[in-house]
Design a protein that fits this description.
Largest sheet: 7 strands, mixed
Helix content: 40-55%
Distance between the termini: 43 Å
Number of helices: 15
Strand content: 15-25%
CATH topology of the domain at 43-91 and 155-280: Rossmann fold
CATH architecture of the domain at 43-91 and 155-280: 3-Layer(aba) Sandwich
CATH class of the domain at 43-91 and 155-280: Alpha Beta
Radius of gyration: 22 Å
Shape: globular
Strand order of the largest sheet: 5-4-8-9-3-10-13
Length: 383
């Protein structure tokens, strides 16, 4: 017990010293002050879950918070001496489509041009781009190559065990195993562990990345599309069993054993199912908003996650007023973010946080046109 206490005190002191020097012991959600008051940022050894109905924008939110935000932070804060690797297991979109999205994002960020993927590929009678845009796309080469050095987009690894094995091999190459006495295992012992030889893992007590500020984000989008696994008896697992295995066996192991940061995207059940099964006394809007009970195909994943965020689009259900606000002005450009779970935070506190974030969004959006509301959303959670 004494050793544990002493280790914790050393951690407390070291983190306080880091904070005093300007490193906040996480990758902050930069410029998102309202959100940061409840969720400081991206923390090592933390499991995040994002949920919404289909087509609401959960993949965009996941990329914004867990790809673009940490990548930009890495570039803009070299003094923090962090190392970042993002492994994006894209089960819904091909690697090429994800990169096309990044080119589109680059054109908007640098030139304020809105260019869709269909326009980039000149698909259809009315979709194409001009020579100036092609020139600007060529200028994006270095940006995209640097981006892909940090963000590994993987679209051909699709089962829970395959994703875990992929990431376990990453762990073997970026860190070290120690025994119960704190002695680093030998190179030969590490090779035996990599080869998964009998008894090779018996001496392992804990693992550390070589770089102490190495953030390894494992983003899987979305987990209902995982290939079903075989059970120990040889039969195929159900979708529910496959998702459970991925979450409570593999994601928890990546978090607790290796200190990695699992981020899973999960659908909500259909609106009709939620309305029919919801509890007595709730309004229609409350029934439709994302919830822990509304997680599709497997409601148990939220038990494994440390933080669960939901995204909601009232306009798709013809709702004109949301949380006392008239949203007819924004229509389908309006989104609300809901903090559904944070370990050690009470429900009333989370509801207050959701309303603070939402109120700022509404106040800013009333001054702008609909086209800019997605950008305003990011500005909102920053002020």
């Amino acid at each position: 017990m004494g050793n544990i206490f002493n280790d914790l005190v050393r951690t407390i002191e070291a983190n306080q010293a880091n904070h005093a020097r300007g490193y906040f012991n996480c990758i902050p959600f930069s410029g998102m002050n309202r959100l940061e008051s409840f969720i400081p940022g991206i923390e090592q050894s933390t499991y995040y879950l994002l949920t919404a109905n289909s087509g609401v924008g959960k993949s965009k939110l996941a990329r914004s918070l867990f790809i673009h935000n940490p990548y930009e932070y890495l570039k803009n804060n070299p003094q923090d001496d962090i190392k970042l690797d993002i492994y994006y297991f894209s089960l819904e979109e091909s690697r090429e489509k994800v990169i096309l999205s990044e080119i589109s994002k680059y054109l908007f960020s640098k030139y304020r041009k809105r260019v869709s993927i269909k326009q980039l590929l000149s698909r259809g009678r009315y979709n194409t781009i001009d020579p100036e845009t092609i020139k600007q796309i060529h200028e994006a080469r270095d940006y995209i190559n640097e981006f892909l050095d940090v963000v590994k987009i993987i679209d051909n690894v699709r089962s829970p065990s395959a994703i875990f094995n992929y990431m376990q091999n990453v762990a073997y190459n970026i860190g070290t195993f120690f025994d119960s006495q704190g002695v680093e295992l030998s190179r030969q012992e590490h090779e035996r562990i990599k080869a998964d030889l009998p008894g090779a893992k018996d001496k392992i007590s804990y693992y550390r990345t070589t770089h102490p500020r190495h953030y390894v984000i494992v983003l899987t989008d979305h987990i209902s599309l995982l290939y079903n696994e075989k059970s120990p008896t040889g039969s195929m697992m159900s979708q529910w069993e496959t998702m459970s295995t991925f979450s409570n066996k593999y994601c928890i192991s990546l978090r607790d054993k290796y200190g990695f940061i699992p981020v899973n995207v999960q659908q909500q059940t259909s609106a009709k199912e939620q309305v029919e099964s919801n509890f007595r006394g709730a309004s229609v809007t409350e029934k439709l908003e994302p919830s822990l009970d509304g997680l599709a195909n497997n409601k148990e994943t939220q038990r494994d996650a440390n933080i669960v965020l939901g995204l909601f689009s009232p306009a798709r259900y013809k709702i004109t007023e949301h949380r006392t606000y008239d949203i007819t002005f924004w229509d389908n450009f309006y989104r609300s973010m809901h903090i559904l779970k944070i370990n050690f935070r009470i429900k009333e506190e989370l509801e207050t946080g959701t309303m603070k974030i939402l109120r700022g969004f509404v106040q800013k959006c009333t001054l702008k046109n609909q086209v800019n509301c997605w950008e305003i959303w990011k500005q909102t959670i920053s002020s």
